[in-house]
């Protein structure tokens, strides 16, 4: 199972005049759907006008509402493909409130490193603490949001891909991110390590008791015991499987980029002035978000990496549309 991520909007304190909205999108693409989707996506890209390309690469922010509608319909034709939108509302986030985050994280990690029993582990955590302390507040903010997106994707795989069509695809679960900096740069290395630490820390994966029995392949593969209670070993799912790829050579990351751009345009067009409400109506069918919470809007806080946010009243239109629409799921709830 593979998940590809990209973003749109400003992941950090908004600049003057900006709306503070940002999104990170993950696209879950099982291997048994990859080739069919690739052919449809390739045909879609081939038909795009030159104005939607930069140096031959399609860019989501250059697509029109009609293009995004066509892309959403392509996803509808592939029920095995789901997308994971994480919507961030940073409109009230002030830069002064986040400037100390890197140094505070460095102190937390340094204290944890001091408690390590083994020298190798202690030195590794201490080095990670230094790297985190050298990140900017916006870079750390970005890390938080991607961590949430990865958590949502793992939950989506467990919850929606439970039937036999996907039993052979549970391992490995590979996570791909758009490479925007030099390979093996400080930011990339910290990203891999911190996403792994945060994702695997106290994540309770969503399962269905009647489906995820002891005999279910997902439980057989990742089942564990924590404090005497059944649990899932998330570290086993993603250890060594966090990768960065260039969007110029990964069509799946181009797809994630287009979906992220489409989603941010949807959020900014709640009055349908640009024709994006019909795009939302189609696109949300493949979303992992529940119908009563289609945006899943969050805010980042100092106290916690994320908290649910009451979406502004103007976004109620999306809940109304989502409630009236069905979902296109990889598995029926009566399938095992």
Can you walk me through this structure?
The chain has helices at residues 31-46, 65-76, 95-98, 101-114, 119-133, 137-160, 186-200, 217-222, 234-238, 251-267, 277-283, 316-324; strands at residues 2-9, 21-29, 53-54, 57-58, 82-89, 174-178, 223-226, 229-232, 242-245, 298-299, 307-308. With 336 residues, the protein is α+β, with helices and mostly antiparallel strands. The chain has one domain (2-91, 138-324). It has a 5-stranded mixed sheet, with helices on both faces. It has a two-stranded antiparallel ribbon with strand order 3-4. Strand 3 and strand 4 (57-58) form a beta hairpin. The radius of gyration is 20 Å and the shape is globular. The model has no long low-confidence stretch (mean pLDDT 89).
Strand order of the largest sheet: 5-2-1-6-9
Q: Name the helix and strand elements from N-terminus to C-terminus, one letter apiece.
A: EEHEEHEHHHHEHHEEHEHHEEH
Rg on CA atoms, Å: 20 Å
Overall, the morphology is globular
Whole-number average pLDDT?
Answer: 89
Point out poorly predicted stretches.
Answer: none
Determine the fraction of residues in helical runs and give it as a percent range.
40-55%
How many strands, what sense, and barrel or not for the largest sheet? 5 strands, mixed
Tally of individual domains: 1
Beta content comes to: 5-15%
What class would the helix/strand composition place it in? alpha+beta
Count of DSSP strands: 11
Tally of alpha and pi helices = 12
Span between N and C termini?
18 Å
């Amino acid at each position: 199972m593979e998940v590809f991520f990209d973003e749109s909007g400003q992941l950090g304190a908004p600049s003057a005049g900006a709306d503070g909205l940002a999104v990170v999108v993950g696209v879950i693409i099982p291997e048994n759907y990859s080739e069919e989707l690739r052919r449809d996506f390739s045909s879609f890209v081939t038909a795009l006008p030159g104005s939607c390309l930069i140096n031959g690469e399609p860019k989501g922010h250059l697509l029109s509402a009609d293009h995004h509608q066509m892309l959403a319909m392509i996803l509808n034709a592939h029920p095995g493909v789901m997308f994971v939108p994480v919507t961030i509302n940073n409109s009230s986030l002030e830069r002064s409130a986040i400037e100390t985050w890197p140094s505070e994280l460095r102190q937390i990690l340094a204290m944890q490193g001091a408690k390590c029993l083994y020298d190798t582990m202690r030195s590794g955590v201490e080095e990670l603490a230094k790297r985190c302390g050298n990140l900017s507040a916006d870079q750390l903010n970005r890390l938080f949001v991607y961590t949430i997106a990865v958590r949502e994707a793992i939950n989506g795989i467990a919850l929606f891909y439970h039937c036999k069509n996907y039993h052979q695809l549970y391992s490995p679960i590979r996570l791909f991110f758009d490479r925007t900096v030099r390979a093996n740069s400080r930011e990339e290395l910290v990203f891999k390590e911190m996403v792994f630490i945060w994702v695997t820390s106290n994540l309770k994966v969503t399962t269905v008791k009647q489906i995820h029995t002891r005999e279910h392949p997902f439980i057989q593969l990742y089942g564990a015991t924590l404090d005497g209670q059944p649990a899932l070993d998330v570290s086993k799912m993603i250890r060594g499987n966090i990768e960065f790829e260039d969007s110029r050579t990964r069509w799946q990351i181009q797809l994630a980029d287009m979906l992220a751009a489409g989603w941010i345009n949807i959020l900014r067009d709640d009055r349908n002035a640009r024709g994006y409400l019909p795009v939302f109506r189609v696109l949300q069918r493949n979303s992992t978000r529940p119908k009563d919470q289609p945006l899943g809007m969050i805010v980042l806080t100092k106290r916690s990496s994320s908290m649910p946010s009451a979406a502004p009243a103007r976004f109620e239109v999306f809940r109304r549309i989502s409630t009236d629409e069905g979902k296109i799921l990889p598995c029926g709830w009566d399938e095992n």
